[in-house]
Amino acid sequence: MQLHLLEIIASFIVLFAIIDILGSIPIILDLKSRTGNISASRITLIAFVIMLGFLFIGEPLLSIFGVDISSFAIAGSVVVFLLGLEMVLGAELFKHGAPGKSGAIVPLAFPLIAGAGSITTLLSLKAEYQTINILIALVLNMFFVYLVLRLTGWFERILGPGGLHILQKFFGIILLAIAIRLFLSNTGIVIVK
Question: Is 0.85 topped by the overall pTM?
Fold first, then answer.
């Protein structure tokens, strides 16, 4: 295992776009108004444990079903592409679950933060990057998730509805490009520049 700054940065950006914690601020604010206090540390820890578990045992779990990482990465690229489309078009393709009275753990930690998109992305990244670099990027993202959960009201005042909307569209386009790259790199299709 070798640390590689570019792999860490690339993994961080991909996970940051998939988790889309900034785009989730309106949902977080809504849940906070319904459930009262949101435990930033508890939500972050649960989401981190879910994603960490999938990072390390996801591949053996897939082998039980006879699926290799490249095939899963191709399937993941389709999911990432659909998530990008959802963000750009403003359409809801994935149901994020209904908020309940569980202190916001269920809709926030799972599936909003550690959902199908982020889990699929972790396994897709594992097909291209070393695990240590993905792990560092995941830890950095979880730190950012924690900060956003703690400072949700502040972010809302600073960015405003327009700023949040622009961020969502911007990261949606990035996700579309990432999905296409993941698909092409795992199918062996070469694009001539």
Answer: no
